[in-house]
Amino acid sequence: MPVFPGSESPLVKSACSIEQEGFNELIIHFSTHTGTHIDVPFHLKSDGLSISDLPADTFMGKAFCLKSSEEKTFSLEEFEKKVLLYGIPDFVLFHTGWDKYWGSEKYFADFPLPSRELIDIITGLKIKGVGIDAISIDPVISKELENHHLLFAAGYIIIENLSRLDKITESVFDLYCFPLKISNADGSPVRAIAHLN
Q1: Which of 174, 154, 158, 161 is closest to 134 using CA atoms?
Q2: Mean of the per-residue pLDDT values of the chain
Q3: How far is it, in rounded angstroms, from Cα 128 to Cα 156?
Q4: Is residue 16 part of a domain?
């Protein structure tokens, strides 16, 4: 499985089998930022909230997607129009289409990202978080991780490595992205689900 450059790849192997021990059991070794996962403020702030600090309803709510343009930007006008039509969501998802490059080197570079202006508008709202179908909400080469810091300062969670946002046919939908409840965790893999009405 592709992971953020420099991160350890996950390991999944059989610990027990029906043939040998009479039951199946796996050993799984992975980073908290493997696959589709959530980042929480403790990821970058020693006094930030961890996974175990957050109630379960943090990880569910109404969502809508913003799709990037051919210029690899996200439209402020589209965002404002959706808020006017549907109200303020719990989550804003950024649909880059970059999940089609999963498993290739292209996945790690040149993906569309929201502008600082759009991030500033979103962090001025009372929502739960944002998500993106790319490896990060910041460029992979970024040392400052500006978008992470701005979103965490607003108390938001970040969902990364989403996929198949192109399959969502509804303007507003229910998003579920529950993490493993690990004490003092900076993030967790999730199974993110869009529930369409």
Answers
A1: 161
A2: 96
A3: 5
A4: no
